Amino acid sequence: MGKNAMTNFNFKIVFRVIGMLVGFESVFMLVPLIVSLIYREDDTPAFLITIGITFVIGLISTFSFRNHSKHMGKREGYFIVASSWIFFSFFGMLPFMFQGSITNPADAFFETMSGFTTTGATILTDIESVPHGLLFWRSMMQWLGGLGIILFTLAVLPMLNSGGGIQLFNAETTGITHSKLRPRISQTAKRLWFIYFIITFLLVIMLVLGPMNLFDSLCHAMSTTATGGYSTKQASIAYWHSAYTEYVIIFFMFISGINFSLVYFAAHGKIKDLFKDEEVRWYTFVLILATMAVTGGLILSGHTINNFENTFRSSLFQITSAMTTTGFTTADFTVWGSFCNLVLFLVMFFGACAGSTSGGAKMIRMVVVMKNTANEFYRNIHPNAIVPVRINNQVISYELVSKVLAFLFVFSLILVSGSLVLTATDLTFEEAFGCTLSCLSNVGPGFGRMGSSFSAISDLGKWVLSFIMLVGRLELFTVLILFTPYFWKK
Fold this sequence. Notes:
Blueprint: H1 3-7, H2 11-28, H3 30-39, H4 44-64, H5 74-92, H6 94-99, H7 105-116, H8 132-147, H9 149-156, H10 165-172, H11 185-208, H12 214-225, H13 243-256, H14 260-267, H15 271-276, H16 278-300, H17 308-323, H18 338-350, H19 363-381, E1 389-391, E2 394-396, H20 398-423, H21 429-440, H22 459-473, H23 477-480, H24 485-488
Antiparallel strand pairs: 1-2
Helix pairs in contact: 2-4, 2-5, 3-4, 3-8, 5-7, 5-10, 7-8, 7-22, 8-12, 9-11, 11-12, 11-13, 11-14, 13-17, 16-17, 16-18, 17-18, 19-20, 20-21, 20-22, 21-22
């Protein structure tokens, strides 16, 4: 292959792959269209028009660039992944606008980006009035975005396996390292989606056994497995007043916060490996500790919810929901007091495990930083000592530690910058910081006036938060690197 082929940006393969992805989105929309036809509501024309527009544009983009070089480097991979989420959100918002549930483009894009990035923040103030087809599409967006749009495409398009699939896989997958279950990326993608589907299916069955009907069970199963948080009710899970439903969702939120590769191996009999993993142990420990802290804080501050069991369940639910960045609610945690809100802030920042559908900084990064900090204390006393960071008894390279530190610095920088911008739009500091952290960690619920809906935020604030949601979902560098001058240089 010539030098130019290696250095020039391959726009043809980029637009061809994006065209395929957009075409797939039109196929996905057939499912909520069927739901709309079943319930005979007025969102059917909106889906028909959107499917037609999306399919035609995807078809044109795919076949207009058939003659292209198959070379896909890191630059093409980063660009495809970052831009595909924007295109998916743009076309995904059209049914809301055509039907009339959301007429403001800023609101519609925010709602859709929140769906695909599994953030779960909403601008809707009367969710029950939205047609069933659109409600199903909201949850389905989160389910598709949970493991990743690109990962699904890799599973069904083997052609990408040899045409830069590894670049796409690495650009979209979360965590500090990316493990493959099988030698071929398409095989890994298929296995991950298989276990993802099975978990969703099991949760549907469990929820149907409770007070939820089949439609609500399907929607909440997709949102839970994706750790997304979109509900079919304005009151979220609190609508059903069911301890059974809450405990079931707590369990599946917890499972969805674990690295899906470990869940896959556990399902194949290697359950011990799940409990041997250091990140899973820390994830479980922090979740239990935070639940105990919030439960104790509610009791000491006089915010006990009916009885101890209700207080404990509410604490466990909100901590699990915040830590896995799902975003479901069973209580108004904004009135729990500063201590409880601070604990929620912290677990939202930490997140769950890498390789899961959750957002946040990820527990593995926090463990690496903690161990590296402990080593620095030791080196102050023994400056000549070589003390490496070990995870699961394996040495973590200095380059990887450096990358983790850089990630946390940029994460904090975006958090502060986003908060500053939002305070300029007449939000209080708590609201600005809470909403920015919620969107950056892909959690969902805000603080203050944004506890259940982001509708009070200005259009500028919604566009900023939409961008922050995308940056958070793709773990910063995949998006931000597009704005560096050396990305575009030959």
